[in-house]
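Q: Focus on the shape:
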Amino acid sequence: MKTMNDPALTIDGVEIRVDGDGPDTILMIHGWPDTCRLWDRQVESLRRQYRCVRFTIPGFDPAHEPRAHALDELVDFVGRVVEQACAGGPVTLLLHDWGCFFGYQFALRHPERVRRIVGVDVGDAGSRRFMKETGLKAKLAIIGYQLWLAVAWRIGGRAGDSMARRMAVAFRAPCDPASVHAQMGYPYYIQWTGALGGYRRARRFTPACPMLFIYGRRKPFMFHSAAWASDVASRPGSRVLAFDTGHWVMAEAPDAFDRAVTEWLAATDAAS
């Protein structure tokens, strides 16, 4: 049986990468259209003080079977990563995009396993407060790109891959367009079709632990409401920071991002 110190640890065929040997573990979860390589820069910055654990979301690796994974399945997968690679927690979650959604749901279901959260650019998207604050033009843009990616997943193959890559280029995603493929879009397919139970069981996220929320303000629409961000900022030990970037804050302003995360982690370490 593989142990948490085994560099070849895999869960359900997914490689779990572990860097650093600090006393506290940071579990990093990416979103669309990325892989665990999104966090390369942050791992180099944090590994001297923290143990960094990351993986590519099941289904996002083109080497794996192109199938959709239900919400419960993914939350359970995160739980097994925490159990087998993070000594059962509690862990610090570092999340972006769909990684926020899945990580937030894990934190809501297993608060005892999460010490603190760094959420990047996605907050309460889809909530009533978010919908109330979001204008019609932004809503149509959100619907448009999400349905495009849902259709790309359904079509699959070269045509679906081409659709996904065109959207990644349009959004200026920092990854290599050649690494983007249609099967990464299955969360959008589930969201809009209700396949595999949809996301009806997803709960609206309010952090029960200290949280650092970082977002880029230079984009056509937000993924959080101002009211939600205000609630987060008012919680003890929590903070909200806006950067002059787009969606991928960690890639567009890496030095400032790493400094903000490191300083907040040190502050919460001292407070505890």
Observations:
- Residues 58 and 239 are 30 Å apart (CA to CA).
- The two ends are 34 Å apart (CA to CA).
- Confidence is low (pLDDT under 50) at residues 1-6.
- The chain has ten helices and nine strands.
